[in-house]
Design goal:
By secondary structure, this protein is of the alpha/beta class. It has helices spanning 17-35, 86-92, 96-105, 117-121, 138-144, 171-182, 185-194, 219-230, 238-244, 249-260, 264-282, 287-293, 299-310, 314-321, 323-326; strands spanning 4-9, 42-48, 52-55, 60-63, 66-67, 76-79, 109-112, 130-131, 149-150, 156-159, 162-165. It contains 15 helices and 11 strands. α1 (17-35) links the parallel β1 and β2.
């Protein structure tokens, strides 16, 4: 098995764990191979723009093994999660961009972890491609990179050697995916057991909390959103909303979609399902009782929409997140 050179970037304002964790996983897999009397498959290095990078307001300092100018060829670039003001952080790390693009053009693959997707997108390598990132930053990502196809619910995306992962700890699943790709299934399973990670997890839907997208300048649409949220149990028609805010229906739908990235119907569904999730988490109401309280009267329709949005059935969701119900 040819040795793969793994370059883990050390950006300014990086999340320290997302530097340490991939390094740990690849080196542990090296140990697995050595225990079997085989050569380790990975050469892992931390790559920086400077020799030392101070993170978390001085709490941590990371020493880079090499600088980008010293690396002429690599096989995989890992972009860790970043933090702080995202636009400023991307600008702080702009000097990485030409090196990443050059290495990709030379045949390297590139993987971003969590909101490292913002730095990856700044390279232009995601133009017209699918991407994952932390669900809570989805709206900001779409504003900054409107030509990238952000896939909200997916934990892993892959497109022509460019990878990205969903929110927070879900990057472990991308790391497992890369371990399997570069070695084999057996090694990925062994790594998943060592790190106690559920292998082949594909969706972050159960973790998404829908707060609406109100960071826009369309005041009538913002008022319509608030009306929907305050009347979650009521039957609300699109015609009623358009009339209430004195906008023609087709124009209202276009404006609503542009402002929120959801159609009015999708928005109503997501608001209702978010309300249902909270009731399943915090009350002992059964499925039918919750269904009625959030404005549904058809059990099949409620279950279908709930599973589409969360990835779980109402009963599965309640069992997973409501401790009192789990003990029953």
């Amino acid at each position: 098995m040819p040795v793969k050179h793994i370059s883990i970037l050390v950006p300014q304002e990086a999340v320290p764990a997302s530097i340490v964790d991939p390094r740990y996983m690849f080196t542990v897999v090296n140990q697995f191979f050595e225990e079997m009397g085989e050569a380790p498959p990975f050469h892992v290095q931390l790559i920086g723009l400077t020799n030392e990078v101070v993170l978390n307001k001085g709490c941590f300092s990371v020493h880079a093994d090499k600088l980008t100018k010293d690396i002429t060829s690599t096989d995989l670039i890992i972009i860790p999660a970043i933090s702080g003001d995202i636009r400023q952080t991307v600008e702080l790390n702009a000097a990485f961009v030409p090196w990443i693009v050059d290495q990709y053009n030379r045949g390297a693959e590139v993987a971003s972890l969590c909101i490292g997707a913002f730095l990856l997108a700044s390279t232009g390598l995601l133009e017209g491609r699918e991407c994952s990132t932390h669900w809570i930053y989805a709206d900001e990502f779409r504003k900054m990179y409107p030509t990238v196809n952000l896939v909200d619910d997916r934990i892993i995306t892959e497109d022509q050697g460019v990878y990205s992962s969903g929110g927070a700890a879900s990057y472990w699943n991308l790391l497992l995916y890369l371990i399997e790709k570069y070695t084999n299934r057996q090694m990925a399973i062994r790594a998943s057991k060592f790190f106690a990670i559920e292998i082949d997890r594909k969706s972050q839907s159960p973790f998404i909390m829908f707060n609406g997208q109100k960071k826009h300048e369309d005041e009538p649409i913002r008022q319509a959103q608030e009306f929907i949220e305050k009347n979650v149990s009521e039957k609300i028609s699109i015609d009623e909303l358009a009339l209430r805010y004195a906008i023609g229906r087709r124009h209202f739908e276009r404006r609503f979609k542009k402002a929120t990235n959801n159609t009015p119907v999708e928005y109503i569904q997501r608001v209702r399902i978010e309300a249902a999730k909270k009731k399943f988490e915090n009350t002992r109401l059964n499925v039918n009782e919750v269904m009625y309280e959030v404005g549904y009267i058809d059990v099949k329709a409620f279950r279908t929409v709930f599973k589409k949005i969360t990835g779980l059935s109402p009963v599965e969701y309640r069992g997973k997140y409501n401790k009192s119900m789990a003990r029953v």
